[in-house]
Specification:
The chain is α+β, with helices and mostly antiparallel strands. The protein contains 3 helices and 6 strands.
Length: 139
């Protein structure tokens, strides 16, 4: 079931200060899955004039964090690996989707893809979370 903007877990994740500062928007959240999007701003380029890998990584990480915490249990990153497959340009809107491959009691494994809005694959990531015992939101 997709979580709505009024859902406490969706609301908590969508208010992440760093993601908001980067212009990352939470578009969809359901248990074990998230989709986020961001438009690459001109100030996000590196000295080659193309979007900095850190900006793309941040988008992937936001999708990972959302999916990892989507069950309402606090989860923190243990590791994340990214492969950059294609360059893109400032002004392009990117969409990152994170999918849970396995949910354990204390860990979770995720696959994240970053694509242009048009569907071109920009990066793939693999990531692992550690699940804490606390709830993400107060009940």
């Amino acid at each position: 079931m997709t979580k709505q903007a009024s859902d406490p877990v969706f609301l908590k994740i969508s208010q992440d200060p760093f993601a908001k500062w980067m212009g990352i928007e939470l578009q969809e959240l359901r248990p074990g899955y998230s989709r986020v999007a961001m438009t690459l701003a001109p100030y996000m380029v590196n000295f080659h004039g193309i979007p900095h890998g850190g900006a793309i990584f941040s988008l992937a990480d936001a999708a990972f964090a959302a999916a990892g915490n989507s069950h309402g249990q606090k989860a923190v990153a243990l590791s994340m690996t990214i492969n950059y497959l294609a360059a893109t340009s400032p002004g392009v809107r990117l969409v990152a989707e994170a999918e849970e491959l396995r949910k354990g009691n204390r860990s979770g494994f995720y696959q994240i893809t970053v694509r242009t809005e048009g569907g071109d694959l920009i990066a793939t990531c693999q990531a692992v979370v550690h699940r804490k015992s606390e709830s993400l939101v107060e009940k």
